[in-house]
Design goal:
about 100 residues; alpha+beta; about 20% strand
Length: about 100
C-alpha cells in the first residue's frame, strides 16, 4: 500500500510525463504567504524560459501603488499582475502554448 506522499509523487510523475509527451513548455506556479512565483519551463525540463514573481522590485512598486494590496504579494490582485507579466515574457520569448 502506498503512503500519502508516495501517492502524491506518483500523481505528479504521471502529470509531468503526460505534459512531456505534448512537447510544449510547462507553466509552474508556486504560492507562499508572501509571494507568488510563476515560471515557464522548457519541454525537456532543462531550463527556465520565462519567469515572474512578486519578489521582483518593479512588481513590488506596482503593488505598493495600489492601496488595497499595499504590502501584500500573494493575493488575487498580485496573481493578476503576475499572470499578465508571465504572459508578456512568454510572448517575448516566442511561447504561445503551455501545459
Amino acid at each position: 500500500m502506498l503512503t500519502k506522499k508516495d501517492q502524491r509523487v506518483r500523481r505528479s510523475k504521471q502529470t509531468r510525463t503526460r505534459i512531456a509527451l505534448q512537447r510544449v513548455a510547462r507553466l509552474t506556479v508556486h504560492r507562499t504567504n508572501l509571494h507568488i512565483y510563476a515560471a515557464m519551463i522548457s519541454d525537456d525540463g532543462a531550463r527556465v524560459l520565462a519567469s515572474a514573481s512578486t519578489a521582483e522590485a518593479d512588481v513590488r512598486k506596482d503593488l505598493a501603488g495600489d492601496s488595497k494590496v499595499a504590502g501584500k504579494g500573494a493575493n488575487v490582485a498580485a496573481a493578476a499582475v503576475i499572470g499578465k507579466r508571465i504572459a508578456e515574457k512568454a510572448k517575448a520569448a516566442g511561447i504561445d502554448t503551455v501545459a
